[in-house]
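G., the chain you wanted modeled:
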Amino acid sequence: MTYHAKEPKFLWILLFVMTLTYTYALDSAFEYIAYVVLFLFFAAMTTNYKLEILEDSLKYEIRILSMAISKRVVKPNEIEKVHMIHAGSRPIVLVHLKKGMRLKLHRFVPEGYDENLAQFAHKHAILIDRTGNK
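Predicted structure as tokens:
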């Protein structure tokens, strides 16, 4: 099953507008730095994520400006544990790896990615920690 998530845009738009305002106020060599920051904020607004839960692996991809900048395939033997947090209406899943940084998975649509990850973990005998009301 394939799931998608997008970066929330409100904060990035606010920072973009504030930086744009200050860019017009600057009349020095630092003006170019403001344009670089504007580009970084724009790139952050276009960030989206893709998660595929397959039979034998998890595929996680980060895309900025429609270009894949990071692709990661995680096999079950690389996963130490899965921590599921149900504090609000949307679950957060932390996939702790034996080597490397953990994966923080949240805001994915359609609903149910957390239950599919739990099934994946049960199938491969991976420890599952649950926090919250579910």
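Residues 2-131 form a domain with the PH-domain like fold (CATH 2.30.29.30).

Shout if anything looks off.
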